[in-house]
Amino acid sequence: MNEKMSEKYKKEQGISKALITKETLKAFIIAISICGLACIISSFAILGAFHDPENNPLGINLEHIYIPIIIIIVGVVGLLGPILIVIITRIYMGKYVSSFRYKLTNSALEIRQGVFTKNKVTIPYSRVQNVNVVNGIFDRIFRLHTVLIETAGISGVQVQGSNFGKPEGYLPGLKDPYEFEAELKQMLDKYNVLPSGLEEKIFKPQELAFDNFISYILSKMRDRDDLLKTNIKDLREKHNLTSANLAAKVGVKSETIELLEAGRYTPSLSLAYKIARELKSKIEDLFLFE
User: Fold this and answer.
1) Which helix (H) or strand (E) covers residue 145, if one does?
2) Would you tell me how many other CB atoms lie within 10 Å of the CB of residue 197?
3) How far apart are CA 252 and CA 157, in angstroms?
4) Residues contacting 192, CB < 8 A, separation 6+
5) Which of 162, 107, 163, 124 is nearest to 266 (CA)?
6) Neighbours of 274 (CB within 10 A)
7) pLDDT tens readout for residues 181-224
8) What domains, with CATH codes, occur in the chain?
9) Is the pTM of this model over 0.70?
10) Does the pLDDT at position 147 exceed 70?
């Protein structure tokens, strides 16, 4: 990976303005379908009222109303509805695209977005589980891609302004997603390299406690509704460190340490090792085993 590309994603990047046209087209197709169906149903109801004025589905007397006028009114309403929806969608998506920014830092992916509610999401590399690139029908029309970044390790955390049904890492409207994907994976590989001295400890028979620790962490990743109990806060305060101090020493955001202390974050083995080193404790002493 060349240095120029690495520097590119350290600066905030935007998403393609073609996303505005794509979402506007989708909204128009949906609106015209719904309004068209509503107009057809309304027209049949009105015509039915004229043919059977005593028992009409509208429950009103239409004996003296001129049919073409009614049809024209229904048609105008059916046309104005989609136009109004298109205008609103285009204005909203314009604001959304202009506010959407993302970048790669030394320890996390940062995403800023929001029209009415400004939202910043920070995803530590240690929590990234999978990266998918999606290219749907409308995406292909405008040569766009959506990058979905699946994460794990947090339970019970509500992200303000997040979109229901979408992963925490959601990047729509990318023209060249594979360049970003390659850079992100490079950062993941760089961050998750085991510190010197850790490799030989993992599978040695005498390090049974550490092997138990690995099993415990993996079981918690499978059972995300259970909180991970830790001693990290007590150990940190014993060494007169704030969560921000400890975060700076191990190369993560202070929010990561706070979530870890609250039991709502599953650390990587590399991060657990770094924390234990800074707190001058054994790695298994960071966690409460039950």
Assistant:
1) strand 145-151
2) 9
3) 18
4) 125, 126, 268, 270
5) 124
6) 20
7) 888 888 887 766 555 555 555 444 444 445 455 545 545 544 54
8) 3-14+100-191 (2.30.29), 18-99 (no CATH), 199-286 (1.10.260.40)
9) no
10) yes
